[in-house]
């Protein structure tokens, strides 16, 4: 393989990672079957691997992949007489793709992604299956990445996805956004999926990159669409507020070499003030609706505390600790408790935080979760217990699958100083 061929293959891989959710969503609208849509998308990928090394990567690779996949869909439908009417419509669509307005195409893709989320979050599926399937189809995540996010075996995730697809096909679930009671019924699951997709983009569980910005962008766009679709739902606005404010830090989260830069070390002049203002506005809308704040609105309020602080030293850690306390009541989880421990340590000293972390460690609730020893190492380091801190950082480095994060943790192990925390990401 030549250097040019290798570069082309890397380009194909990058495009595929970005375009997979859009391809599957758009093709599912056409063929009304997720498995068939995935097969057609894979066929388009094979064609790209065969043709792009000779012809070069096209100017609009996503459109090339979609057009190629649609042509294969036409071939498939030709073999099925009962789709004759759809064939005629699809043929006209394919002929006009090249001349279509890119803005219109983006809007169609956005609608298709939203339909995909609500389809994958149908109540006929279990909660775990809804999340796993949507992360696979919307985020383009591998089963390994999904398993890592949920701290479960990869085989479990693979089984959930296969069974979910079979259930949707067997039950004949329509590829559409529901209305009325059905919309509210699926909202909590949809919000959770969008939240998890964003988190995977914000702090990638595996690979060489600290972030996967395309996933953050997809999640934020879907959140904004949901806010337009359901303007009277405070948690929709709470989630959007959280994603807007978190996204504002993206440009400051890595250094010149791509190495991670933790929250309290970031150059806050690089935070995107437009996104912060949008986040504040969304949070205000959530609060104006009058309901008690839900988990996403509470997390958005925590993010807003960081955004309001002009410097790290001005952070209102007492308020953040209070908000985490409310979040622990509203949506209790070991990860929330770990984040609360970080805030308590900042507000009341590292020993207070370490007591909470040690209580968590004693339960095994976060066994295998690399941020538990990472946080413990930081608190031990602050208390001057350097040897113990080094061991914790080394354990955290061994547990993480993200190369950039592993390098950061090994640096912390070597230095046993600085500031590291789960919430401080």
UniProtKB/TrEMBL annotation:
Residue intervals of the DUF6596 domain: 186-286
Domain RNA polymerase sigma factor 70 region 4 type: 118-168
The RNA polymerase sigma-70 region domain, residue ranges: 21-82
Keyword Transcription belongs to the record: yes
Keyword Cell cycle: no
Pfam families xrefs: DUF6596, Sigma70_r2, Sigma70_r4_2
Protein keywords: Sigma factor, Transcription, Transcription regulation
NCBIfam families, A to Z: sigma70-ECF (TIGR02937)
Family: Belongs to the sigma-70 factor family. ECF subfamily.
PANTHER family named among the record's database cross-references: BLL0085 PROTEIN, BLL6612 PROTEIN-RELATED
Protein name: RNA polymerase sigma factor
Organism: Streptacidiphilus alkalitolerans
Taxonomic lineage: Bacteria, Bacillati, Actinomycetota, Actinomycetes, Kitasatosporales
């Amino acid at each position: 393989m030549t250097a040019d061929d290798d570069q082309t293959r890397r380009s194909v891989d990058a495009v595929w990672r970005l375009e997979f959710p859009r391809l599957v969503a758009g093709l599912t609208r056409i063929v009304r079957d997720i498995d068939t849509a995935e097969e057609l998308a894979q066929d388009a990928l094979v064609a790209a691997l065969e043709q792009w090394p000779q012809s070069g990567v096209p100017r609009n690779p996503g459109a090339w992949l979609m057009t190629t996949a649609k042509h294969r869909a036409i071939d498939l439908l030709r073999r099925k007489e009962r789709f004759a009417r759809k064939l005629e419509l699809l043929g006209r669509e394919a002929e006009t793709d090249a001349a279509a307005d890119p803005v219109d195409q983006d809007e169609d893709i956005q609608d298709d992604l939203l339909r995909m989320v609500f389809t994958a979050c149908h109540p006929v599926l279990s909660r775990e299956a809804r999340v796993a399937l949507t992360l696979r189809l919307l985020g383009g995540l591998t089963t390994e990445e999904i398993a890592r996010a949920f701290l479960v075996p990869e085989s479990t995730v693979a089984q959930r996805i296969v069974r979910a697809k079979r259930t949707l096909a067997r039950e004949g679930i329509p590829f559409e956004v529901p209305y009325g009671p059905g919309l509210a019924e699926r909202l909590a699951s949809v919000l959770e999926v969008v939240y998890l997709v964003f988190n995977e983009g914000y702090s990638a569980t595996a690979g060489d990159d600290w972030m996967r910005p395309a996933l953050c962008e997809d999640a934020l766009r879907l959140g904004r669409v949901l806010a337009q679709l359901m303007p009277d739902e405070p948690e929709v606005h709470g989630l959007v507020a959280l994603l807007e404010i978190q996204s504002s830090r993206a440009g400051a989260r890595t250094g010149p070499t791509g190495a991670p830069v933790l929250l309290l070390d970031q150059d806050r002049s690089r935070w995107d003030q437009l996104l912060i203002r949008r986040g504040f506005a969304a949070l205000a809308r959530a609060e104006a609706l009058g309901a008690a704040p839900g988990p996403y609105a509470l997390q958005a309020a925590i993010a807003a505390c960081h955004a309001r602080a002009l410097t790290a030293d001005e952070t209102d850690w007492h308020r953040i600790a209070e908000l985490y306390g409310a979040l622990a009541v509203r949506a209790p989880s070991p990860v929330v408790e770990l984040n609360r421990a970080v805030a308590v340590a900042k507000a009341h000293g590292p020993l207070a935080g370490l007591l909470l972390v040690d209580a968590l460690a004693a339960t095994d609730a976060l066994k295998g979760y690399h941020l538990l020893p990472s946080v413990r190492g930081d608190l031990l380091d602050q208390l001057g217990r350097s040897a113990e801190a080094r061991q914790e950082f080394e354990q955290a480095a061994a547990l993480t699958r993200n190369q950039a994060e592993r390098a950061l943790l090994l640096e912390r192990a070597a230095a046993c100083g600085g500031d590291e925390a789960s919430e401080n990401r």
